[in-house]
């Protein structure tokens, strides 16, 4: 993980193409999930576009920060937070995904007047979204507790998929020069926006390659205690890193995410 800084998408401006602009979670128990995250992060919820079923947008201090949608009862998909990357032309981005060996699973389609989206997966199987903004620009507030602060791809080999994301979104790559740490930071216009962490064979067999969303919290240890009280699970205990104190957790339905108190 590294620091993500900048105000793209905030203050009413559109996100620069390639920048993570939104995170969304599809679940079976909408009410229970809203209660969990509302209590954990202080979110409140407002109805969002219903093009794929029931969907709400989480708000913090009146600013939209994330989305939660209802999975159809017959869809047994992994419950996972999905980052969306900004695009000026989601149809062209989807075409590029296919050309580069990825798969487009949903869309491109219109989300009412909010914008246009596609949900895709990279050649290693990690799922991500693409968002072309109209009325809905994306996450309206960052860098405060309760907001997504970083997105990181957990995959077997960073270099294997880095070229895919570079071609699809125009990222510039900054590899970490280390014999025992496989990591590439992805930049847009010189600003770090996401990371690719090659974890080799330690990648869980039941999950495969996947994107991890980090949410900022005021106190990691207090958040973990609260999360356990709410029925969540701690997967990797709190640890100090050069970028802050971090823990990896799961919500009651099994969606994995990380909480971080960023070192500024």
From TrEMBL:
PROSITE patterns the UniProt entry points to: VOC
VOC domain boundaries: 19-133, 147-262
Coiled coil: none
Origin: domain of life: Bacteria
Pfam families per the UniProt record, alphabetical: Glyoxalase_6
SUPFAM superfamilies: Glyoxalase/Bleomycin resistance protein/Dihydroxybiphenyl dioxygenase (SSF54593)
InterPro entries (alphabetical): Anthracycline_SecMetBiosynth, Glyas_Bleomycin-R_OHBP_Dase, Glyoxalase_6, VOC_core
UniProt protein name: VOC family protein
């Amino acid at each position: 993980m590294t620091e993500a800084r900048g105000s793209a998408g905030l203050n009413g401006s559109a996100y620069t193409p390639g920048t993570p602009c939104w995170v969304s979670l599809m679940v079976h128990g909408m009410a229970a999930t809203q209660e969990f995250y509302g209590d954990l992060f202080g979110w409140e919820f407002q109805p969002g576009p219903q093009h794929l079923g029931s969907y709400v947008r989480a708000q913090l201090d009146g600013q939209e920060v994330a989305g939660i949608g209802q999975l159809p009862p017959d869809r047994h998909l992994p419950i996972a937070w999905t980052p969306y990357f900004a695009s000026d032309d989601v149809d062209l981005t989807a075409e590029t995904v296919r050309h580069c060996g990825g798969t487009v699973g949903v869309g491109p389609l219109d989300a009412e007047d909010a914008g246009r989206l596609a949900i895709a997966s990279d050649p290693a199987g990690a799922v991500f979204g693409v968002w072309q903004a109209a009325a809905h620009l994306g996450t309206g507030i960052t860098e405060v507790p309760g907001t997504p602060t970083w997105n990181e791809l957990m995959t077997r080999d960073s270099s294997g998929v880095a070229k895919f994301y570079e071609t699809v979104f125009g990222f510039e790559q900054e590899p970490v020069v280390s014999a025992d740490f496989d990591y590439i930071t992805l930049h847009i216009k010189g600003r770090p926006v996401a990371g690719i962490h090659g974890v080799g064979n330690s990648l869980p067999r039941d999950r495969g390659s996947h994107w991890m969303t980090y949410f900022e919290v005021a106190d990691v240890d207090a958040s973990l205690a609260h999360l356990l009280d709410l029925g969540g699970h701690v997967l990797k205990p709190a640890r100090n890193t050069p970028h802050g104190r971090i823990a990896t957790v799961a919500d009651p339905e099994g969606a994995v995410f990380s909480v971080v108190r960023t070192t500024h």
